[in-house]
Amino acid sequence: MGDVPALQEPLKKVLGPATAKVMAEHLGLHTVGDLLHHYPRRYEERGQLTHLADLPMDEHVTVVAQVADARLHTFASAKAPRGKGQRLEVTITDGSGRLQLVFFGNGVHKPHKDLLPGTRAMFAGKVSLFNRRLQLAHPAYELLRGDGEEAVESWAGALIPIYPATARLESWKIGKAVQTVLPSAQEALDPLPDSLRAGRGLLPLPEALLKIHRPHTKADIADARARLKWDEAFVLQVALARRRHAETHLPAVPRVPGPDGLLAAFDDRLPFTLTEGQQKVSREIFDDLATAHPMHRLLQGEVGSGKTLVALRAMLAVVDAGGQAAMLAPTEVLAQQHHRSITEMMGELAEGGMLGGADHATKVVLLTGSMGTAARRQALLDLATGEAGIVIGTHALIEDKVQFHDLGLVVVDEQHRFGVEQRDALRGKGKQPPHLLVMTATPIPRTVAMTVFGDLETSVLDQLPAGRSPIASHVVPAADKPRFLARAWERVREEAEAGHQAYVVCPRIGDEEDDPKKAGPKPAEGEGDKRPPLAVLDVADQLGRGPLKGLGVEVLHGRMHPDDKDAVMRRFAAGETDVLVATTVIEVGVNVPNATVMVIMDADRFGVSQLHQLRGRVGRGSAPGLCLLVTEMPEASPARQRLNAVAATLDGFELSRIDLEQRREGDVLGQAQSGARSSLRVLAVIEDEEVIAQARAEAAAVVAADPQLEHLPGLRTALDALLDEEREQYLEKG
Q1: CA 52, chain centre distance (Å)
Q2: Which among 269, 636, 656, 701 counts the fewest CB atoms within 10 Å?
Q3: How many secondary structure helices (H) and strands (E) does the chain include?
Q4: Can you tell me the distance from the alpha carbon of 297 to that of 434, in angstroms, rounded to the nearest whole number?
Q5: How many CB atoms lie under 10 A from the CB of residue 727?
Q6: What is the mean pLDDT of residues 36-45?
Q7: DSSP state of 348
């Protein structure tokens, strides 16, 4: 992170254009500093070889092993009909297992000469299966000789760094490139204040870079990693602390509800009492709304914990105090759903200015991109005059034409689907910055919340309201046990005959041209190429003619006309449809208490949190819920383990930890959406909870003492590198 002028040198100047091009395209490395911060993934020890026994299928691996034997075979083929075809088979061993290498054709000559029995080398290639044995076909290799000045120098350390590599650039080539730029590490500007570094006994940055790339002992690696983790945690937390600091200096209008206004009238109407959790979180929100600085709060809670109700009470409090509230939803289906459930909850309190409206009533308007001109014009007018106290909409709310009379609160639903520009554009519509409440239905472990949403105060709803039913979850192994799948459809039919309803979710719509980009979520890494994901239109057709014949089956997906989507949802909500076959458009916010079964086809193609979200659509009424995770993945695969984990617990916080441990950190931190690399290289959000918490406290102290970081030039430089345009999204999980 200490990218400074000496480390800003483009790699093409130092390594030559060809290598630099591959590094830029495949690894996102552009400068000397980028390469110095491309740390080894692990290290091989001279005396201790990689376990060949544990090689993963279909992955690009680097192994260190010894040649046990090498045999040259000749054979006849279409290209070499006279038995002149050549195949070199080399067996390598590391004591734990053996692995076959194969080379063909003209490619056999050099390895035949190099790879003599007893030779030790590093090999890199993709692990494949041939005749039920693991093999590497045409692997790249680097001999580990003990002679010659350069070889001795290169492999003098007992630990050989293995870098995250690609098929185009093997680990040892990256290692050689690092060797070339390593002297520049001396010029790295240290982002940590001296007092912090000394107080925590951390290495200076140049020394840490040297030790991570060229360690002599395991202690070197541990010291270097401890130091570099602090860099990442601290620089990120300073960025977040500066945002928090800036927010507390913005003015906002305090919004305090009256004692017997709209909020009190709404509370009187509620047919149930709020849970303790809802009361506590509401108090935190009302305290924030009463201050003269903008509230910045994250409201996270389990699926079905009543976040919408808490958000609605906050909006009513703001309307009571003379302001307006806007709720931003990620999809039209969800905006319509929120509009419908909020107007139902409010009853005559949502009929301001209309016959039959209550005394304190206000207007609740919907604004989406597909509305008719007349309805849209009326909604815009109601917002501009202040007639509408509450507006619910999609990103159509952000357009220039939308003017508010006095915007006091913005509620963002499902934060991860909105970028920073969208959030800021909406906040810019207030005369002064409005208060901000961000809701997320994916429970986030504390460390992730501190890392990703560190500029927001966090409220957690972890109780489910009374009357919620338990949900049983089971994995249905369709390939191993086809009768289990047949039984699943029988269960759906039984529930429908008992008067309940079911969802069937598929990864794909099914009206796409053969475009791989549109073929739904990809299988997880290492799980090979499989048939295309199941599609809504195909599955609905098969079910309607087969196992669910005679039941009312309808489809719902994102490419339907909004009016058609709304009509389908209304029929399902009214109980007129037995089974809804849909894509993940039903993932959030859809509330049909009579739906008791959720069948997820190709469940292995969805992430853990997405499965948990989908499961939360059932068990919302008095009847127990059932979630069936259908998969064709084999018992031992990582995908099956992931599904077993989801089936084993209903605790979203526990699942989000599992999810995090199984996925790359970058996905979690929103990098997957913005296309930027994760700026976390050694910091593991789940494991390094303590470092993150300590860094947050240190960062807050540094920013409070020196908000502009005038006395910390190294830290300023590191912040600029973290917050360059590509990573601006990072803090927003956009």
Answers
A1: 32
A2: 636
A3: 26, 21
A4: 12
A5: 17
A6: 85
A7: G
Q: In the chain, what's the furthest Cα-to-Cα distance?
A: 98
Place of tokens 């054979």: 75
> Quick one: 717 exposed, middle or buried, by C-beta within 10 A (0-12, 13-18, 19+)?
buried
Q: Which of 42-51, 297-306, 361-370, 589-598 is modeled with the greatest confidence? A: 361-370
pTM above 0.85, yes or no: no
What type of residue is 421? E
Give the model's pLDDT for residue 115. 93
Cα-flanking dihedrals φ and ψ of residue 458, to 5°?
-115, 135
**What pLDDT digit, counting tens, does each position of 327-349 carry?**
988 888 788 888 988 998 898 88
Contacts by 560-569, CB closer than 8 A, 24 or more apart? 561/370, 562/332, 562/336, 562/368, 562/370, 563/370, 565/332, 565/333, 565/336, 566/333, 566/336, 569/333, 569/336, 569/337
Order across the sheet with 501-505: list the strands.
Answer: 471-477, 625-631, 595-600, 501-505, 579-582, 553-556
**Tokens 């091989």, residue?**
44
Distance, CA of 23 to CA of 171 (rounded, Å): 12
Rounded CA gap, 297 and 227, in Å?
32
Alpha carbon distance 299, 460 (integer Å): 6
* pLDDT surpassing 90 at residue 306: no
C-alpha triplet 585, 588, 591: angle, nearest 5°: 100
State the Cα–Cα distance between residues 157 and 712, nearest whole angstrom: 35
To the nearest whole percent, how much of the chain has pLDDT over 70? Answer: 83
Average pLDDT over residues 482-492: 94
- For residue 399, the one-letter residue type is E
Q: Are the CB atoms for 334 and 360 separated by under 8 Å?
A: no
Tell me which residue of 320, 360, 318, 312 sits closest to 339, measured CA to CA: 312
Would you say residue 407 has pLDDT above 80?
Answer: yes
Q: Which has more pLDDT, 489 or 369?
A: 489
Q: What was the pLDDT predicted at 515?
A: 47
